[in-house]
């Protein structure tokens, strides 16, 4: 019995010693880590195929459009006050020389010929405009034309094998459609943000003379101006232009010029260097009960004319102060912004039918619009 016990004790000692040695030198043999803790069993997802796109991803839309979105760097030389050489002027007012100014924005390549759409305020007053492509190529751009009234500009660069965005149908866009905003916010580099179309036909914002904005909650920040608003197919729906913000950053209210407008402006700038718009020479106001009572009109909708330019197209056609324009070329007008847009879209020299409410009578008047004069200054 004593031998058996001694044999058992010796065997147990050898086993414990072996366990200690193995646990110290090769812990993985015992299913433990080197620190003495157990390994964690994880469930690893299978490696996706190289061309597989996750469900709900906008990867393909971003890839399709991003290569055609460029960064724009502008510079303006320092201006010198002509009186700065006068020693008395310098004594009283100091050195009035201004520092050189630099700006940044975005643009979209819309043609293999090198035409780029951007905002007028991005390039306005610039002495030099540098375009940086997504593939790091750089080129100096030439201004083909600008249109301050819609805040659009067309540039041109001379490079080969340019990526080009596909133009989408902005008129078919609906509230709730998903969109992506692509640009260079704050100069950090190309960025893609996502959201939906929040509203269509936004106007009376005081940003441009002609306003018909697409509103989106996709994040748009300084530097995004002139960038692309694309649909989930990567097709260009609009040019990002402005934001509503109290801090200078995105608050979820951004505005883009629809391509239906941008395309018309671009065609005019490329072809003629300017945009030709219709004009009839009136002073319009939104119809209010006070104005309706003052002029004695019964209309409830439309735009009331409070002034008519002498010998202008409207005066020659017989439109008078107090008339309410209800429709232009069979398109209803409900406010001043809509009237300006409809009249601007008329072809100068070609007669168009205006529906007029004059006191109790409704009239149809043919007006031959003239060419809209160029604005001296458009407040922003």
Topology of helices and strands:
Layout: H1 2-25, H2 59-66, E1 69-76, H3 87-93, E2 101-109, E3 115-119, H4 120-123, E4 128-132, E5 138-140, E6 142-147, E7 152-156, E8 166-167, E9 178-183, E10 191-202, E11 213-216, E12 228-230, E13 235-243, E14 254-258, H5 259-272, E15 278-279, E16 282-286, H6 289-295, E17 303-308, H7 313-317, E18 324-328, E19 331-332, H8 336-344, E20 352-358, E21 361-367, E22 370-371
Parallel strand pairs: 8-13
Antiparallel strand pairs: 1-2, 1-4, 2-3, 3-7, 4-5, 6-7, 9-10, 9-12, 10-11, 11-14, 12-13, 13-14, 15-22, 16-17, 17-18, 18-19, 18-20, 20-21
Short description:
With 380 residues, the protein is an alpha+beta fold. Helix content is 21%, strand content 31%.
Q: Could you explain how this protein is built, in words?
A:
This protein has eight helices and 22 strands. It is of the alpha+beta class. Strand 2 (101-109) and strand 3 (115-119) form a beta hairpin.
Which tags fit this structure?
380 residues, alpha+beta, Thrombin, subunit H, 4 domains, 8 helices
Oligomeric state as shown? single chain
Strand order of the main beta sheet, please? Answer: 5-4-1-2-3-7-6
| Biggest sheet overview | 7 strands, antiparallel
CATH C-level of the largest domain = Mainly Beta
Q: Roughly what fraction of the amino acids lie in strands?
A: 25-35%
Give the number of DSSP strands.
Answer: 22
**Total individual domains:** 4
* Separation, N- and C-terminal Cα atoms: 106 Å
Mean pLDDT across all amino acids: 84
Radius of gyration: 33 Å
Looking at CATH, the homologous superfamily of the largest domain is Trypsin-like serine proteases
């Amino acid at each position: 019995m004593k031998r058996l016990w001694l044999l058992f004790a010796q065997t147990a000692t050898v086993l414990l010693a072996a366990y200690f040695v193995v646990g110290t030198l090769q812990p993985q043999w015992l299913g433990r880590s080197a620190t003495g803790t157990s390994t964690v069993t994880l469930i690893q997802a299978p490696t996706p195929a190289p061309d597989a796109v996750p469900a709900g991803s906008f990867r393909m839309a971003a890839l399709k459009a991003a290569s055609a979105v460029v960064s724009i760097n502008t510079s303006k030389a320092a201006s010198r006050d002509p009186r700065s050489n006068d020693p008395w002027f310098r004594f009283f007012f100091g050195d009035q020389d201004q520092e050189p100014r630099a700006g940044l924005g975005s643009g979209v390549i819309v043609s293999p010929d090198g035409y780029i759409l951007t905002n007028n305020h991005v390039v306005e007053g610039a002495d030099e405009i540098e375009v940086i492509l997504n593939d790091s190529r750089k080129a100096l751009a030439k201004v083909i034309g600008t249109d301050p009234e819609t805040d659009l500009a067309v540039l041109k660069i001379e490079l080969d094998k340019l990526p080009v965005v596909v133009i989408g149908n902005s008129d078919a866009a609906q509230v709730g459609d998903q969109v992506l905003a692509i640009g260079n916010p704050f100069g950090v580099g190309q960025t893609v943000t996502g959201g939906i179309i929040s509203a269509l036909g936004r106007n009376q914002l005081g940003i441009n003379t002609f306003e018909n904005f697409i509103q989106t909650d996709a994040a748009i920040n300084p530097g995004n101006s002139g960038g692309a608003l694309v649909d989930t197919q990567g097709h260009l729906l609009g040019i990002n232009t402005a934001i509503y913000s109290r801090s200078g950053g995105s608050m979820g209210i951004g505005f883009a010029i629809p391509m239906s407008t941008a395309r018309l402006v671009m065609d005019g700038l490329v072809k003629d260097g300017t945009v030709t718009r219709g004009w009839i020479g009136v002073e319009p106001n939104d119809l209010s009960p006070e104005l309706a009572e003052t002029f004695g009109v019964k209309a409830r909708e439309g735009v009331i004319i409070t002034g008519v330019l002498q010998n202008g197209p409207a005066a020659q056609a017989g439109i008078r102060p107090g008339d309410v324009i209800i429709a232009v070329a069979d398109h209803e007008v409900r406010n001043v912004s809509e009237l300006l847009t409809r009249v601007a879209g008329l072809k100068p020299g070609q007669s168009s039918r205006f529906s007029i409410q004059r006191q109790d009578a409704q009239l149809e008047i043919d007006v031959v619009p003239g060419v809209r004069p160029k604005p001296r200054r458009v407040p922003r």
